[in-house]
Hints:
heterodimer; A: alpha+beta; Jelly Rolls; CBS-domain; Beta Polymerase, domain 2; 4 domains; 4-stranded antiparallel beta sheet; 4-stranded mixed beta sheet; 50% helix; 16% strand; B: alpha/beta; 7-stranded mixed beta sheet; 17% strand
Amino acid sequence: MSTVPHQVIDFLTQSAPFDVFDKDTLLHTAKHTKVIYLTEDNKEAVLDEHCPALFLIQSGQFIITDERGKERHLSEGDYFGFIMLLDPNEGKMQVTVDSPGVVYCFSSEVFKQRCENKSFLSFFTAARDDVVENQAVANSNAMWLYKPLHEMLQRAPIQIEQTLSIQAAAEVMSDEGVSSLIVTEDDHLIGIVTDRDLRNRVVATGLDITLPVDTIMTSSPAYILHNQNMFAAIALMSEKNIHHLPVLHADDRSPVGMVTTSDVVRQQRGNVLFMIGELSKTTSLYELTRVAWQMPQYFAANAKRAGDFDIAGKVLSQGTDIMTRKLIDFFIEINGEPPMKYCWVVYGSQAREDQTMGSDQDNALLLERDPDSAEAEYFAAFAEYVCKGLGKCGIKLCDGNIMASNPDLRLSLDAAVKQAKQWIRTTTPEAILEFNIFLDSRAVAGDRTLFKRLQQLRKPILQDNIFLAALARNSNQESVPLSMFNKLVTKKHNGKSDCINIKVNAVALVNNLARLHALKAGLTIPGTIERFNILGQIGAMNPKDANNLRDIWLFLNRLRWRHQLSNNASDNFVSMSDLSSIEKHQLKAAFKSIDRAQQSAVLQFSGGIS
Amino acid sequence: MVSWLKKVLKLNSSIPRQWQNVPLNTLPLLSIDFEFSGLDPKSAMFLSAGWIQGQDYNIDMGTAYYALIRANTNLDQSPVIHGLTEDALIDGVHAAQMYSALMTFSDKAVFVVHNAQLDMVMLQKLAQKLGATLPHIVVIDTMQLALYQLNKEHTVIPGDAATLGACRERFGFPLAPAHNALDDAQATLELWLAQRHQIDPKGVLTLNDLKRTGAVKVFGEIR
């Protein structure tokens, strides 16, 4: 007779990865389950009788020294025994019973049958390899946005020297089947020609097709560097309203390819990026604020899939960038050009491009030199206008007054360098808390070379070992909310008793790790994902660790955005009851990885003194 | 009432010899639970039955049994012991079928029951109705065992402290919502495993040793 207690089926249904199976499979699994009361006294007999087998804890607390010698503290919902099932050559595991409890036992035969399901199998291989399951992240339909452009480009660039004729250019385009062409001078980009140029500038005007191609090209076109990602390319194309974007090598600026709108369309289904184009089209403060205020609703309505959550922070940050540039344009239209070179710099989440609905603005002005009183007045008004304007667009004013409207944050290049030297001398926890936000920075408008000079001057200062040690110790102050026996430690928030502050207790910790390693390696880019990508590539971090932390960051960020959008909230208190069973497992695995990375950072940067 | 109970149950304090010196860790166990239409044995009817087998610290899910009992019991139909079809399940089985299936365990396993009294009275009544005699059944009553433990810890036992849920909670088991007779049978067996570990961690006690707790009871008649 095929029946089993409901509670067995219920427990399996709640226990990822068993939740992937249909009712019949679960029933079959349940029928072949042995339920064991595992105690310190009977553990040897039990393990002898059942191993190799998969064990799932329903109650009790156990310390497992797994087949590879790693100690794990486990409790309800956790598994053990799977390493031996996956790899029979591994050693034996040891069990210490902290408090006895009920453990479900699945024979190796049942385990093998269930492993025919790929996601079931990958759950356990990921657990074995101590990584957050990559599949969940890899499946995301937005991962392509994060890939460097050089990995995305389909083919070498189609290019032609400027002195060749229009007809020759058209022939190349026709032979290669492309709609645009890079025009070069000594192999360097000087312009592009598109189908549209041939139509509008040649055919429609009856132009002589033997003329050199540079007569009809668009000179000095916008371009992007090959180590940037697809997202940056799309944002640039949307902002400039162009359909063809040459890609140049970052080192020697030689053309390496072309990104076109059709590349984007091919990759992208309708998504939240639409907002960027809308913001770029605005021509007045009124229009800008009107579009900006629609962003939250637009996000809530359109961000439904994991992939949308992955890019939501980037879109919001790019949107804030565009608002800033628009506001600066509006101010200059009324008040005239700035009296000297300046750069609008952003910090914190906007710099990292991981803003959320609750993020406030953090920005500053970097000036070429100390201004005289009239110049100072101009920039005061300038900053006041932009910060207030951002506020009107829904980007909250900063509580800590980290805004360009604060005179302390309108520094000359020299003063900014001095400030960095000050940072490394005062590494008290309070001081670190104060300047930590400035360590993630990005230029948004104005003269970027000014900012680049600051970064170059600051780079060696911030590589100071004592400074980095202090940062490492400081970021170790916060730890992940996971108890000794692998239980999530939750807090009460808004009437829900099972919340975790995903920003303070998780995302910020990963950001800290990325920042620390990036400073050490002398990387100036601010984004956490980009930092990990590069740190892994250049060998500044073990690539496996870097990729794992990157995936963890994406996963945490996804939980955060889903929480904010589905609950219409701007806080970061994610309720554990909103998570699926597999997400809870992933969250625990993520926390464990973060904890390990924190420990090894303390070791690496401060010689283990924490 | 008390004399009536004694008469019906023929309470017998001696454990059949086959079980007496069997260590607890080798006893074959059958945990059972029933649902009735009421609490008064005179008028109550069987609604469902569930049981599951175990031994030592294991519970074998493959042995789970669950049946709804047909309200209007037609005793003329031949009882089918095994191989209940899906259709039979929907309609429920005759009480006689359930009884025959259960009695195949009477001398093969020690029954584990939480609060055995009502269940055994009901089985006795059912046996009479079927013109049979309830065979000798040895029962471990997890409620009595819990009361024995509580008595050692408290002078006054808090109300509800001996319910299945409360007993399980003391061992840190998840609070399973009450489902059906089979769920409770499994929950009872899990409770027994935890209780056994508490009183006999080294696995040296026999069924006889357990008698002093008042949790071992013998029902029915020696055939």
